[in-house]
């Protein structure tokens, strides 16, 4: 099963490499990884999506917790949560396909954020499934480049991941 | 207020932390620190002859005392030479602090002379590591390093120290930090009482229980509590290789150690058990054999301080995260309030166990006949008698290691010192130095093989400099015996590079350093040689004992089998 694990990490040099190193060292898989500072400058928030059975996920969370730089973590997929990813896509936009790109973007509530005579750059947010669907829809028109942030997420309701 | 340079802070901190010995080797990036050590006399520096030996010596010290061993090396090759010893300590959860010199901060990343990213290199084999960013943080970072190394599940901690952090011209305030707090690190001690109750219930109901305990008993200083618990319940107990000495091996409840080369009765008892109470052990592959066939009828209680050890390879029915000593004490106090199980409850179980014991009695190995080569097993037994079972014993890795573990019986913890997890050849001799330097009045025996000894024999020079009187027992089978055994069993005796051609004349080699060496080739030379060797505990003596090169270590679990699938000799199997 796919899991989304969000981690509060000491904002220290080398901390990120310990997390990433752990995954490769123990043969755990990383599908996406997203990291940025939080409102507390001493902490970064890191979100990983990974796939594994219960035993593997249990090992992943236990080993992450063992890292000294990991302050706290939560497996968001254990409860209701919001999951978002942002993607920027450059699509070929020539002739008839120029309209086609715009129409498809509208259907997905994506925005065209940059334009040249031959290229549209489209921005879209949503869960990973929506982004995948958008890529599929655009593929026949001609995708030139894709940049995805990887999943970020947060629990629904009053539940917090904080110190 | 006291102003000290970074280098002086390090020396001063080590003193304030109560460190007596550090093991190391100098070089450019560490020279300010060496100068600071020169100008004080509280901390004694032991100059090894290879940085790997510094880590093993510190490790031996840590295993014998329970306190962190301390290592000091320079950047680049000094640091990379230490990696094997750091990994050795990591695999066996041994507390160690490794101080590494590093190139000046402004040169980092420029491939400067003797620069390696040692934090990166060692990342998978340390509990944690630090890089010093400013001299003023040295006391606190060092305190954190010692705290992390020694608490929770212990392990090596590396501190990378760029040379400019120790510059003699920059001085900062020094205060010894008595305590440190790390917000993300709060190792558990007490186990969950509800879970412990559940475990105790199961223990009172069990009909075929076995304790299976590991290195956590030794590092957690829980062997007295464990002995009390086992004796109250009258359960059989087997330990891992790392757990040897956690329970007195002479006691009737002791089945010896288990696993690949464990005792017949221990492996049989595990296989037939209805309850396994694992404490401070990690169900590793050298213990469980094939996990899908592991202990088919047993419920499993697993106590460990490291949650990630629990249900890693074998699922626990009752997981208990906690320190061994604390959980055992709680089990004992719960048992005191409970009706004890009837004394007959285990009678059948002990009958089976005594039956397994009787089956192998007197058949463990064939002693040598007059005129034949000595058997390694009988040499270990003779050393056991000569030292009255009271020596600190270190080993290298190979057949001699297994024989030492099988035939030297330990009554106390911290006495059997071996590289279990990593299996590092070269470990035994420097580890023995680290022990002997701290227990000068005790006999310290290193069982080694001619293969392993040659990996760290340069340390003879260190022993000469610091008068380290270890006893080296070289079980010389003129081959990489353990490799050869596997080749006999799995490769139709094609001995690809497992023989030791061109062995040195060890006696001459030892004598070149001014030590005594005794060569032993027959059984009647053995006792007198041992008598001579152990006459003076302060003298280094090397016993070069020629043993049967064809001997195998048995029992040996059959690969992919269950606990009870064992080869018992060259001709018998279960
Ligand atoms: C550093 C290292 N290299 C290789 C091995 C693999 N290995 C395990 S036992 C062994 C043979 C050891 O020979 P020796 O020290 O003579 O001991 P014996 O088995 O003959 O008693 C080898 C090569 C190892 N454990 N460690
Ligand atoms: Mg050998």
Give the SSE layout.
The complex is a heterodimer of chains A (163) and B (574).
Chain A: E1 2-10, H1 15-25, E2 32-37, E3 43-51, H2 54-66, E4 70-75, E5 81-92, H3 96-107, E6 111-115, E7 119-126, H4 128-138, E8 143-148, E9 152-155
Antiparallel strand pairs in A: 1-3, 1-4, 2-3, 5-7, 5-8, 5-9, 6-7
Chain B: E1 3-5, H1 6-16, E2 21-24, H2 31-38, E3 44-47, H3 51-65, E4 69-73, H4 77-81, H5 83-91, E5 96-102, H6 118-122, E6 128-131, H7 138-150, E7 156-162, E8 171-173, H8 193-205, E9 209-213, H9 215-219, H10 223-233, E10 237-239, E11 254-257, H11 264-272, E12 275-279, H12 285-288, E13 299-304, E14 318-321, H13 324-336, H14 347-360, H15 376-386, E15 392-395, H16 399-407, E16 416-417, H17 428-438, E17 444-448, H18 450-456, H19 460-466, E18 471-476, H20 481-490, H21 506-512, E19 516-520, H22 523-533, E20 541-546, E21 556-557, E22 566-567
Parallel strand pairs in B: 2-3, 2-4, 4-5, 5-7, 6-7, 9-10, 9-12, 10-11, 12-13, 13-14, 15-16, 15-17, 17-18, 18-20, 19-20
Antiparallel strand pairs in B: 1-8, 21-22
Helix pairs in contact in B: 1-2, 1-7, 3-5, 3-17, 8-13, 10-13, 11-14, 15-16, 15-22
The structure holds thiamine diphosphate (TPP) and magnesium ion.
Magnesium ion binds at residues 398, 449-451, 477, 479-481 of chain B.
């Amino acid at each position: 099963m796919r899991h989304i694990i969000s981690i509060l990490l000491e904002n220290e040099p080398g901390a990120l490499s310990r997390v990433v190193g752990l995954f490769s060292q123990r043969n755990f898989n990383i599908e996406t990884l997203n990291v940025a500072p939080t409102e507390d400058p001493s902490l970064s928030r890191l979100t990983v999506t990974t796939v594994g059975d219960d035993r593997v996920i249990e090992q992943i969370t236990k080993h992450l917790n063992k890292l000294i730089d990991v302050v706290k973590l939560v497996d968001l997929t254990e409860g209701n949560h919001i999951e978002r990813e942002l993607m920027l896509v450059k699509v070929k936009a020539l002739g008839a396909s120029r309209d086609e790109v715009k129409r498809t973007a509208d259907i997905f509530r994506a925005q065209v954020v940059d334009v040249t005579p031959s290229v549209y750059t489209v921005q879209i947010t949503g869960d990973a499934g929506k982004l995948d669907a958008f890529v599929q829809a655009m593929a026949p028109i001609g995708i030139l480049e894709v940049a995805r942030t990887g999943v970020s997420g947060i629990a629904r309701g009053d539940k917090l991941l904080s110190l | 207020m006291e102003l000290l340079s970074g280098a002086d802070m390090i020396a001063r901190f080590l003193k304030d932390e109560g460190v007596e010995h550090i093991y190391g080797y100098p070089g450019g990036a560490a020279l300010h620190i060496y100068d600071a050590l020169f100008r004080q006399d509280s901390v004694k520096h032991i100059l090894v002859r290879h940085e790997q030996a510094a880590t093993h010596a510190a490790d031996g010290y840590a295993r014998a005392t329970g306190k962190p061993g301390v290592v000091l090396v320079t950047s680049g090759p000094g640091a990379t030479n230490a990696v094997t010893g750091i990994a050795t300590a990591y695999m066996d959860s041994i507390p160690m602090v490794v101080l590494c010199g590093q190139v000046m901060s402004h040169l980092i990343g420029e491939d400067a002379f003797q620069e390696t990213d040692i934090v990166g290199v060692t990342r998978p084999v340390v509990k944690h590591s630090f890089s010093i960013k400013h001299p003023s943080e040295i006391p606190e970072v060092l305190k954190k390093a010692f705290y992390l190394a020694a608490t929770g599940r212990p392990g090596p901690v590396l501190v990378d120290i760029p040379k400019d952090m120790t510059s003699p011209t920059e001085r900062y305030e020094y205060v010894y930090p008595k305590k440190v707090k790390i917000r993300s690190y709060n190792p558990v001690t007490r186990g969950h009482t509800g879970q412990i109750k559940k475990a105790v219930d199961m223990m009172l109901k069990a009909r075929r229980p076995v304790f299976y305990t590991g290195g956590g008993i030794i590092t957690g200083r829980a062997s007295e509590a464990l002995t009390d618990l086992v004796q109250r319940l009258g359960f059989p107990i087997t330990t891992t290789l790392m757990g040897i000495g956690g329970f007195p091996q002479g006691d009737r409840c002791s089945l010896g150690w288990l696993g690949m080369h464990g005792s017949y009765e221990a492996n049989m008892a595990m296989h037939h058990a209805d309850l396994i109470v694992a404490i401070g052990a990690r169900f590793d592959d050298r213990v469980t054999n094939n996990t899908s066939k592991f202990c088919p009828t047993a419920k499993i209680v697993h106590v460990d301080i490291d949650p990630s050890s629990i249900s890693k390879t074998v699922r626990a029915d009752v997981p208990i995260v906690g320190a061994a000593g604390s959980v055992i004490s709680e089990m004992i106090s719960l048992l005191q309030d409970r009706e004890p199980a009837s004394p007959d409850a285990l009678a059948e179980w002990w009958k089976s166990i005594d039956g397994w014991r009787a089956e192998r009695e007197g058949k463990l190995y064939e002693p040598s006949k007059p005129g034949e080569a000595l058997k390694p097993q009988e040499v270990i037994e003779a050393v056991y008698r000569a030292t009255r079972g009271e020596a600190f014993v270190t080993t290298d890795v190979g057949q001699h290691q297994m024989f030492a573990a099988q035939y030297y019986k330990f009554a106390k913890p911290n006495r059997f010192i071996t590289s279990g997890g990593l299996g590092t050849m070269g470990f035994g001799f420097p580890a023995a130095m680290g022990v002997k330097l701290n227990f000068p009045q005790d006999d310290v025996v290193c069982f080694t093989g001619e293969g392993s000894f040659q990996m760290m024999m340069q340390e003879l020079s260190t022993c000469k400099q610091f008068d380290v009187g270890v006893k080296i027992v070289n079980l010389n089978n003129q081959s990489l015996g353990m490799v050869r055994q596997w080749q006999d069993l799995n490769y139709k005796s094609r001995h690809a590079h497992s023989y030791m051609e061109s062995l040195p004349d060890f006696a001459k080699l030892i004598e070149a350093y001014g030590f005594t060496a005794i060569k032993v080739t027959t059984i009647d030379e053995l006792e007198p040689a041992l008598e001579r060797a152990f006459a003076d505990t302060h003298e280094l003596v090397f016993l070069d004992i020629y043993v049967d090169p064809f001997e195998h270590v048995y029992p040996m679990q059959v690969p992919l089998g269950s606990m009870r699938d064992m080869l018992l000799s060259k001709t018998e199997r279960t």
